[in-house]
Amino acid sequence: MSAGLRDPAATGRHFWIGLQPSPDLTDHDRRLLEALSPAGIVLFRENFVHGAPYERWLVRLAGLLTEVRARIGRERILVAIDHEGGRVQRTPAPITTLPPARVWGGRAEEVGRLVGRELASLGVNVDFAPVVDVDSNPDNPVIGDRAFSRDPREVVERARAFLRGLQAEAVLGCLKHFPGHGDTISDSHLELPELSIDRETLAARELMPFRALAGEAPLVMTAHVLVPAIDAERPVTLSPRFLRDLLRTEIGFEGVVVSDDLGMRAVAELFGRPEAAAEALAAGCDQLLLCAHLADTAKALEMAAAAEEAVERGALDARTLVASGARIERLLARAPQHGVHALDASMLRAHAGRLV
Known about the structure:
TIM Barrel
């Protein structure tokens, strides 16, 4: 199964794949990982054995990650998870159950260290956190208490502390969701939200955390939102005005830009054409995230082939992919490679006690 890719190792690194809902690698994922050779994988709740003894589910997880590396054909990979606390947490007991970020934000560095220590023990080297959206709209159905605060300055302070703690324990953080998802009234998992604010408000509020923290996190995740004040035609994930001009040139972010999940309904139609992957890469995305809980991840093979064809046609500048690939390689070189191991029971009890 090659999907016609000329160089899976080069093209595939622009993809980040969420595994199918199983604690063991499925045949689908085996074929996909071998054909695509993505930069990394994302773990979800179903990739853990919930309800089993700690030692037993750790063995299953270790086996899963060992086979993932073998199928990708590379020891250095990115192993990511969404671990924010509250509504967004995938791991089984006895990994600490966190309340929402709004609750523990005043102790963000301590919690960041706790999270980093626990995630590293699971073989994870990237946490898709912190959320740096400003909770500016109480009617927002998707952000709410996932945000640290309604004050952008407090968001900056707490997100910085969380990153400091997380990365001190050798787990990389990711700022999300650029340029800010807090002032929308619809869920981008279901439809494309519109951020209807002027440039001045966007700059003073939503963009403040990204400007302040751009040099402190290696990753930024895009939001699937439309912001007419900047680009009335393309959502942020497909917009050079946002990713190339604003995030790269104006803000000066030098790390890796990863899309939010391309299987979400907000962009499912936009990404129905495989060629749209080339549009996202041309706009400034380095990596395209495609997860099995919302989409058929085999679409990544068509997307990768379409990106290669776009380069051959001149629709996607090869120099863009070279620069993007270099950023991904730097991220892979920086990402610690953790072995799966049990944490001491007394440590886990102490972690849980700190959050009571």
